[in-house]
Structure formats: structure tokens, C-alpha cells
Write a structure and sequence with these properties.
By secondary structure, the chain is α/β, with parallel strands linked by helices. It has 19 helices and 16 strands. It has a 5-stranded parallel β-sheet, with helices on both faces. 32% of the residues are buried.
Length: 462
């Protein structure tokens, strides 16, 4: 059990919370500071195993924090985080004694791995390999399976992970496609490099190009500084293109060129920038049908589908249901700091007989809610939220539908009100709303487009 204490320094409260919660879930003790001055004061009072500091902060910045800590304790590893990194800044930080340099946005897995490495190096363990999906690195991102096909697939992926070949992961929503992508990354020679994920369905089409390829200062109105795209941020590592089927066809052509030439053109840029990135794409759509309907480029499909991976749905590997239940019971009782509940015989039977249309994600949501409702006691049938023949058998869902329905409300109007109400609660976040409603982001977007068209038709008639 780790008892090492880490000092996290960042002027953004959300970043401090995210980093501290992640590291605490790995067993570390975490102290946080909102400024460089406070961090140096805390470091004087108590020694820390590792310091993680943001580079750009008001007043005393990350470089000054690094120098101040090294004056007090030259052996304390300092990891510098920045959204404004350049090669020169990285070199300067390393010269000043930084243990490593990481650039926003980054995956929490990558940071946790980095912390494990520097702690190991400080204590003479050399860091070791932390990429076997065991322990801290993957505590909340473990692939739980006892299914023979899944185990064979994972074993196969270990071998092909070493190559740079593109991977296309296909499977129904909720089967764990991103987990597979991370598994490939962690078993590759790029494991210590960035893992950057792009949700192609969550970013509007007109913004996705600049998000992926970056832009130069002045490239368009509002471009007040140069910004690196996801390809450059993932340099040397892995880029996950989630929901690749939702990418605009014109942008698909530009993506194809980047993959073929291994270089990107920033918006407003004068020269191409070389990039070394391993591409993993995921989709729950039938890309062959998309190609036939002219929604997806055939040449891009074959460029991505060098290593095809198809994840079986949970209903085809029901032996995993008890294993996953045990894992999620432990996870959410630990996170909720409640005693670990047990499943009644009726609940266990219901879970094993259910077809799980939402796959592992649905099972996780069901167990999370059940743990919350049971409060540490035995989980009973009334604690479950399972769909049956298209209807939700739960008091909360019935209340949600009742709250948006009236005697003269049509089913379509109820659906519309429920979607808008959920989006309002999710503060406009379509991904979060889709998870609450148990549908895909694509469904949400299609419904919103449908409502917009209905309004336009009504406007024309009037």
C-alpha cells in the first residue's frame, strides 16, 4: 500500500480536483496548492515524495516552483505540466532539474504512469513496467473478462500492439472500445508517450478540423495564439479517434492524407509539420453500410482497418456478468465509502438473465445506482433499473416521464421534452446526456436536427 505524499500545484480548481482524486484512487496521499507561493510554503513545512506543478500561474510560476523546491531538496522529483509547452521550455525545465515534462491535454493514465516511474527511480527501483493493466495504472480502467474469445483477443493484441499499424475497433456502444484502445497503447512501445482521445461525435464538424490539426495565430477571427492539434499533442504516442463514423466526409479526406504522409497542415500554416502517431479508430456503426451510402470513404476504411478488432457484446459473453458485478460492487462501494453490499439470489438471477442492450456500460450504471440505493445493505430487486420490452421499470424513470407528460402529449413530444430536460441538467453536454438517457451521441444529435427541421417546416407553413 503506497503512503507517499504528492503535492499538486495548479491555479485551476478543476485541475487540482481531477489530479488529486486520480492519484488518491491509486493510494497516494495528496496535498494541493492553488499558487506557487503557497506550494513553496507547504514544501518548507513538509517534505513530499513528488511535486506536480502547472507551468503558467499568476505570480510565482511553475519554473520558479521547480527552482525553489530544488534549492530545498534536490532529490525531490518535480513533474511540470503546461498547456503552453515548447521544446525550449521543456529543455529549460529539464536543465533546472525537472524529472519530466507533460503537456496538456494528457491522459490520467499517462500521468499516473509517470508518477510511478519517478517514485520508482527515486527509491532505486528503476520504475519497472507499469503497463500490464494491473494495480494503480488501470485501477478504474481494467478489462474484466473470463470469456475465452476475449482472452484470446487480448493475447493477440499484445503481439500486434508493438507495431505502428492502424487499428479499427468495432463493437456495440458500451462494450469497452476505448478500454481496448488504451490496452493496445499500454502494451505498445509507445506506452510512456501521450494517449490522446478525440470524440468525433462530440465536437461540431466546423471545429473538429482545428481540434485535430491545430492552427496558427491569426488563422481566423479569435485565433489569438498558435494552438497545437491533437495529432501534434499525441506525437510519439497514440491518437484515438472515437466514433470515427461521425466525421464529415471532407475531413475524412484530410485525415487520410495525414495518415499517408505522416504530416499535418495547421490551419493558416505555411509548412507541413511531421508527426509520428499511431492511429486507433473506434465505431459502433456498420462502416460497410456507411461506405455504400457515401457517408464514409472506402480508402480511409482500408487505411484504418489494417488491424481489425471486433468486440463481442456482453450478451454473447454472459460468463463475464458475475465478474463485472463483483468488480463494480467493490468499485462503487469504495468510491461511496459505504460497506460493500451483496446481491440477493433474485437480483443475481435477474442480472444473468438480462440481455444487456447497453452492454458493460449499462451494467456498470445499474450496479452504481443499486449500490447507492442499497446504502451498504443487501441489493434487492427494487434497487435495480432494468429495461424490459422497451419500458423502464424504475420509480425514478417513471417520475421523469410523468414530469414531461400531460394528457394530450404525444409520445414524440414526450421524447422531445425529456431530451431537452436531460440536456438542460447536463448543461448542454450531449455526451453526458446520452449516457443518462442510454442512447448514443449520434441519436441525440439526429433528434435535435429532426426537431430543428420540424420547427423550420412549421415556420414556413405559418
Amino acid at each position: 500500500m503506497k503512503t507517499k505524499t504528492i503535492l499538486v500545484v495548479d491555479d485551476e480548481p478543476s485541475m487540482r480536483i481531477a489530479l488529486s482524486e486520480s492519484l488518491e484512487s491509486c493510494g497516494y496521499k495528496v496535498e494541493v496548492s492553488g499558487s506557487g507561493a503557497d506550494a513553496l510554503e507547504k514544501f518548507q513545512e513538509d517534505k513530499f515524495e513528488v511535486v506536480i506543478t502547472d507551468m503558467r500561474m499568476p505570480g510565482i510560476g511553475g519554473m520558479d516552483v521547480l527552482r525553489g523546491i530544488k534549492k530545498v531538496s534536490s532529490k525531490t522529483p518535480v513533474i511540470v505540466i503546461t498547456a503552453y509547452g515548447t521544446v525550449d521550455t521543456a529543455v529549460e525545465a529539464m536543465k533546472e532539474g525537472a524529472a519530466d515534462f507533460i503537456m496538456k491535454p494528457f491522459s490520467i493514465d499517462h500521468l499516473e504512469s509517470l508518477v510511478e516511474k519517478v517514485v520508482g527511480e527515486k527509491n532505486g527501483r528503476g520504475g519497472g513496467s507499469k503497463h500490464d493493466l494491473k494495480g494503480c495504472l488501470s485501477r478504474e480502467k481494467t478489462i474484466i473478462t473470463g470469456d475465452k474469445r476475449m482472452l484470446a483477443l487480448l493475447e493477440l493484441l499484445k503481439g500486434v500492439s508493438k507495431s505502428k499499424s492502424s487499428v479499427l475497433v468495432q463493437g456495440e456502444s458500451g462494450t469497452g472500445k476505448e478500454l481496448i484502445a488504451r490496452y493496445i497503447h499500454l502494451n505498445s512501445s509507445r506506452a510512456n508517450m501521450p494517449f490522446v482521445a478525440v470524440n468525433c461525435a462530440a465536437i461540431p464538424h466546423n471545429l473538429l478540423e482545428s481540434e485535430m490539426f491545430g492552427y496558427e495565430k491569426g488563422a481566423f477571427t479569435g485565433a489569438s495564439r498558435m494552438r497545437l492539434g491533437k495529432f501534434e499533442l499525441a506525437a510519439g504516442g497514440t491518437l484515438l479517434l472515437d466514433e470515427i463514423s461521425e466525421m464529415d466526409v471532407q475531413l475524412q479526406a484530410k485525415l487520410l492524407r495525414v495518415i499517408q504522409e505522416s504530416e499535418v497542415d495547421r490551419l493558416g500554416g505555411k509548412a507541413s509539420v511531421p508527426v509520428d502517431v499511431r492511429i486507433i479508430a473506434t465505431t459502433n456503426a456498420d462502416l460497410k453500410k456507411y461506405i455504400k451510402d457515401k457517408k464514409f470513404r472506402e480508402d480511409l476504411y482500408y487505411r484504418l482497418n489494417v488491424i481489425p478488432v471486433r468486440i463481442p457484446p456482453l450478451r454473447e459473453r454472459m460468463c463475464d456478468v458475475p465478474l463485472l458485478c463483483e468488480y463494480f460492487l467493490e468499485k462503487y462501494s469504495r468510491l461511496g465509502r459505504t460497506p460493500r453490499p451483496t446481491l440477493s439470489k433474485e437480483v443475481a438471477q435477474a442480472l444473468e438473465n438480462y440481455k444487456w442492450p447497453g452492454n458493460v456500460r449499462e451494467l456498470e450504471n445499474v450496479i452504481e445506482r443499486a449500490v447507492l440505493l442499497a446504502g451498504g445493505d443487501r441489493i434487492l430487486p427494487e434497487h435495480l433499473y432494468l429495461e424490459k420490452e422497451g419500458e423502464m421499470h424504475s420509480r425514478s424513470s417513471e417520475a421523469s416521464l410523468e414530469s414531461v407528460a400531460s394528457e394530450d402529449t404525444t409520445l414524440k413530444e414526450m421524447e422531445k421534452r425529456l431530451i431537452f430536460k436531460t440536456l438542460e441538467k447536463a448543461e448542454g453536454n450531449r455526451t453526458r446526456a446520452s449516457e443518462v438517457l442510454g442512447v448514443s451521441v449520434r441519436t441525440i444529435r439526429n433528434k435535435l436536427n429532426e426537431y430543428k427541421m420540424d420547427e423550420q417546416k412549421t415556420s414556413i407553413k405559418s
